[in-house]
């Protein structure tokens, strides 16, 4: 099921088609496709080319690992993400590797890597759904994530599935129109809150 928005200005087809489903099909993601989306993330731009992103990956074919990562998600996200064939956690290195000084751009750069992952997934006919609803503390404990590395987001990856498999509240959310705030509320020129003309 594709849910394409109506943009106010032309955008690339991959951006137009990208969305975050809650329903995933019971179809495995090939190793080649998984490596491809991770490779797209690897080639994201970053401050000083520091590449502060790390990804922890669990596939349904490895039930113990999959259950471990799934257990990091909040209960509501577990209820639908458990149908995705791949789960991931993005993690940010909060210090520059070369200097050891704090990298205040690390979370931004991890977001760029995740965005490229999502677009590559879309190009391959896959979907990715990023989640804030997970326990950073549990992830840190279960995966021995070192100090100065911060778990950023959980990601479900797979093929979009039938929303009818979802509970009523999630089904409505999955079928809701995709919307965004208008540029006038987001893009300024001259002074704060003055829309770009």
Write up this protein.
It holds the Pfam family Nitroreductase. One of its GO terms (molecular function) is oxidoreductase activity. By secondary structure, the protein is of the alpha+beta class. The protein has one domain (13-161): NADH Oxidase. Helix content is 34%, strand content 15%. Strands 1-2-4-3 form a four-stranded antiparallel β-sheet, with helices on both faces. It is globular. The mean pLDDT is 95.
- Identify the CATH class: Alpha Beta
Distance between the termini: 36 Å
Strand residue content: 15-25%
What structural class should be given to the helix and strand makeup? Answer: alpha+beta
| Corresponding CATH superfamily | NADH Oxidase
> Averaging pLDDT over every residue, what do you get?
95
The helix/strand series, from N terminus to C terminus, equals HHEHHEHEHEH
* Helical content band: 25-40%
Q: Tell me the CATH topology.
A: NADH Oxidase
Please describe the biggest sheet, giving its number of strands, its sense, and whether it closes into a barrel: 4 strands, antiparallel
What overall form do the CA principal axes indicate? Answer: globular
Please tally the β strands and state the result: 4
Count of helical stretches: 7
List the domain count as a whole number: 1
Low-pLDDT residue intervals, each spanning 5 or more residues: none
